[in-house]
Amino acid sequence: MSTDPNFTNFVGLSSILTVYPQDQLAPAIDSTGLAQEYLNWMTKHADPQAFQQTLTTYANIAANFPLPQQPGQVQQQILADATMGPIGRRIIRLWYLSTWYTSEPPDPNLDGQVVSMNAYTMGLAWDAAQAHPMGYSELHFGYWAVAPPNNDVSPNQFPNVNTTSTPSPEAVTAAAERPTALQRGGI
Amino acid sequence: MLNCPRRFVSFLVLSSIAFAGLWACKTAPSGPASTDQAKSLGATASPTPSSSPLSSVIPGDADFSDNPQTIQQIQHDFDVFSWQSFVALNWPVNQSQTIGSSADGDNPTVWETYIEAYQVFLPNGQAPSWDSRNIPPACTPTGSPAAKLPVFQMTMKVSDQVLDFSQQAFGTGPLIDQRGEYVRYAINLNLDAFNYILNNKLYSKEGQANFANVAFPIASPSPSPGTSGSMVLKTAWRILDATKGDDLSRYHKIDAYVYNAPSKNPPVQPSCERKTLGLVGFHVAHKTASAPQWVWSTFEQVDNVQVGQNAPAGLKPSFFNPDCTNCPINKPPPKPWNPTVKTTPSQVTRVAPLDDATKQLNAQWQGFLSNVNTKSVWQYYELVSTQWPTQPAPKSTPSPYDPHPTGAPAPQFLANTTIETYIQGKVPNTSSSCIMCHNNAGTTAGKFSDFSYLLQRAQSEKSK
How many domains is chain A built from? Predict the structure, then answer.
């Protein structure tokens, strides 16, 4: 994984904004490098000053507030800010919809570009909806013949975010069974 | 908003933007004793230079004792595993010899004693045996002069091999060499994979219908001997002819029956000829403890799309004509596809070049092989890459509910120019990716078949 502070801050901020754990957005052993791709995209296409200000603001939040308070601080200091708010929302849209909008608020009839083929298939919207892109499923052959599981595991996977719901026992089990990048014999 | 589970975040995002816009917007650019067993039990690697890693022992998994931390380091360990597997699988059947040590630098190989797929899935769902033979009638010219040669007695199973496939994955078309000859393919299973199919009656449709969850075995934990884990090999071969410019000293060769199956469109009469074929492509799929999605290694002969090292003057690539500037690149030949008739040669290029680390490793292992014998044919093979799961599922039994059952393979795409010629590239779900493709494999009963398409070949017992 990159040791670039911008990358670290971008992934940390992305995790709070998307409510997905950092090791899912940017696995330690990453075969696609989507987080780096999004960072490169933001660096190239977002307003440079606003983007850097957003990352710096997040870095200060991460350095000065305990984990449970960081999401609230991101909401107050970044999303509620007139300059940084659009940056934060565009990051959310990138991760969930794989799409870059220049308009604010976005108008998909006028605007929007899918960042890449990988971005499209890895959009978090699919995962959150327990769905998959048309014609592209990572599930094993025959999955459609079996009822979907209850795997809303976000409260467990992201304990630093206050949640209003209590995870089901199935969710706890599913979270515990989820693989991590280094669950491999010998490494 | 931040105090919500992600489903609610998703709902907010989706409701704020017309979801249909996603699709409207632009896209930026019980078997017999196994050869494996014998090898493991014997565990006596034949004589090689002391510093050489060449060994007849098939590794059960990659060696991570160097504690790799980066994707490049893990890739290296899997690539070494691939080379170890390549060498062990191509070790001489006569275990007292060393790979490539014979006078001509070639040898009959261990993996060529493995059963071929067409011998496993028999008509009427019959139970196969490791030594079963089901040669097409057109290929049984018993008493032919060549069959009586003693040299073929020692490698009888190899010399009687039938190469009956001339098509690539997804019916994308045959590969034609620069002399207009069709490339032939074969699929072989090792004993672990075969015994799993046999013992669970997966060789018939009825057996598959009665079986709940296909999960091929991995190697037994060390030091328990006897297994190397399930392995399936797919090989590509071209017909060699020294009188027409082929340099036979750069190929592993077999004497084999080349069978052309009958067809109505185009009209093809069954025929079979005995030919000398050279190995041009070599796939190995190996299920291991670290890779429930299997490890996928692929090798090629070095002269496939460009002339490799130490090439004699005038040697040309097997599947690329450097003098043709307007030949369509990586396009299948025009139909009809009739393997009995020579046709337009394929103009093949490699879309994803070998990376520098792989080239370096190849040079190292090719050096080990040439150190055994400067005439070794095995020095003229190169690893393209190894695909492995970066996030292997923790469960030993595959489940449709694993969140990422393909394990986020690395590299994301992998193609052999002789086996996935026409689906090279970097388009998800379209370009060649071993794990992503085989994730769609199912049994004849519509269940996941643990990354193996072989079970689709089973026939019904009811037609007895």
Answer: 1
